[in-house]
Amino acid sequence: MRTSVIISCLLTIILAATAWATSLPFGVSVGGQAAEVVNEIYAEVPAPVSADAAIVCDVAEDMIIINVFPSDAQGNVDSSAQPAIIMIQGGNTGALNQTMDGQALTPGIYLMNVVAGGATSRVLFTVE
User: Fold this and answer.
1) 6 is in which domain, residue-wise?
2) Residue 107 sits in a domain of what CATH number?
3) Distance CA 24, CA 59 (A)
4) Which of 6, 53, 66, 79 has the most CB within a 10 Å radius?
5) Would you state the pLDDT for residue 125?
6) What is the pLDDT of residues 81-105, one digit of tens each?
7) Residues 6+ apart with CB under 8 A from 96
8) How confident is the model at residue 22 (pLDDT cuts 50, 70, 90)?
């Protein structure tokens, strides 16, 4: 009986840790700051970054696709807004000002989905 309770507790802890980590399956840094997991929905860059901040993804893939959405502080995106798209090919480094449409991100809060290798890291950040 005691063994099954211990195993049950361990499985619960492992499953909770797995669910917690789903917002950041691989590391992402913006402007030299590593995103930190704050909840199961997204990770967050601790301080504001510049509109041309570097993006570094801790994943080795031929293609990394980044969708950047205007957001509020709780990670709710503006569903009517067109996302900015950033593509990184043959590396793991890009920049916020390398959008497909050439438009710079204006000051504000954003949520980006960084897609690589069948996984998605979701990162909330602020542009100053």
Assistant:
1) 2-127
2) 2.60.40
3) 11
4) 66
5) 99
6) 999 999 999 999 999 999 999 999 9
7) 30, 49, 50, 51, 52, 53, 55, 68, 86, 105, 127
8) confident
